[in-house]
Amino acid sequence: MGMLKGANAPISVRTVRVEVVRGSGPGASVTDACALLTAEGRVRSGADTVSRSLPVHPSGAVRHEGRRSAGGTVTDTFAVGLGVLDPAVERVLFTAAAEDGDFGRVPDVHIRVLDAADGGELARYDSRDATVETVLVLGELYRRHGGWRFRAVGQGWADGPAGLAAAYGAGAAEPAAPATRPAGPGRVTLTKQAPAVSLAKQGSTSGTLHVNLNWQMRQEPRGRRARLGRAPAAGVDLDLGALYELADGTKGVVQALGNSFGSLHRPPYIHLDGDDRTGAAADGENLSVDLDHAAAFRRILVFVTIYEGAASFAGLHATVTLRPQQGAPVDFALDECTVPSTVCALALLTHDGNGLVVRREARYLVPDRGVSPQRTLDRAYDWGLQWTPGRK
């Protein structure tokens, strides 16, 4: 069946064939195709890229079965054993890359999902609006409530592998070498002058939004560190969290304190993945939001508190990245902290009727004596929760 961009359909069989099809002929760009396996929204390594040059995934669950040219089209076929995929693999994305131009010059670009047993068509998506993109994610197979579904994605980047890698990880680099372009929608950086972005307008209306916080201590001359109660970098423990208010009026908090880690698959549809005690650049703290339930949110305030190891954020360099499964990543850096703050409001997500809008807050707050960081945040944003002491 033909599908619109963003639509999804259930896949009830255990083994499928996926065809990535594009037109060929005079004036059309030379193209390549590959499948990407992602876990927690990221490609784990180059081994999770399956293509003509790397035709079999180490697990054997995804295979490139060859390329054929006929009737003015080129087709790459992938076999996917949904029933034998590693449980850590959440999605299999199917991409196409243009080697010597863009997809505005490539006719008849589409993807088909077929029942491997009888060849019956289960889903089809035709990409009709590509222009300057040199890499496209045409569609994806993804887990949902114990089963599998196919989504028509139609998301592209003009900067080729760089945009794809920014969205899904360094291992997502394409085997082909698309032409370099001077600019493209690979990343959105929020600033004081441009503090907000609509996820819906970026094409991010479904899937999981991953929010990551990483930090490190700036190195400064000896003697300056103590001015705002600074502590050595070792042992600085920051906690990412979120205040939420749902459309039905339900309010709460997701945070490591009190082991309130939330849930991605039931209200509040927000989950704190873990508690990183170091801020290591590879991991940091991660929060997930289910955009399939975006309409259930009224507002979400993402925040960070200092649990131990420092008396304020002074001297800490932190970066926030919001990475949706469709659309460009959104990031921003925190400004230098010049007050004795132990809690910082990072980003406010609100629903505007179409989807979530992300606004950069980067607002350092100073608790009054005897007032917790969380209660200070609650007062500043008028959340109205009742707070009790908690531990982790």
From TrEMBL:
Pfam families reported for this sequence: TerD (PF02342)
Task: Give every TerD domain span.
Answer: 27-168
Q: Which InterPro entries does UniProt cross-reference here?
A: Stress/Tellurium_Resist (IPR051324), Tellurite_resistance_TerA (IPR017115), TerD (IPR003325)
Instruction: Indicate the secretion signal residues.
Output: none
Q: Where is this region: Disordered?
A: 48-69
What PANTHER family does the record point to? CAMP-BINDING PROTEIN 1-RELATED, GENERAL STRESS PROTEIN 16U
- Family recorded in the similarity comment: Belongs to the CAPAB/TerDEXZ family.
Write the protein's name: TerD family protein
* Gene source species: Streptomyces morookaense
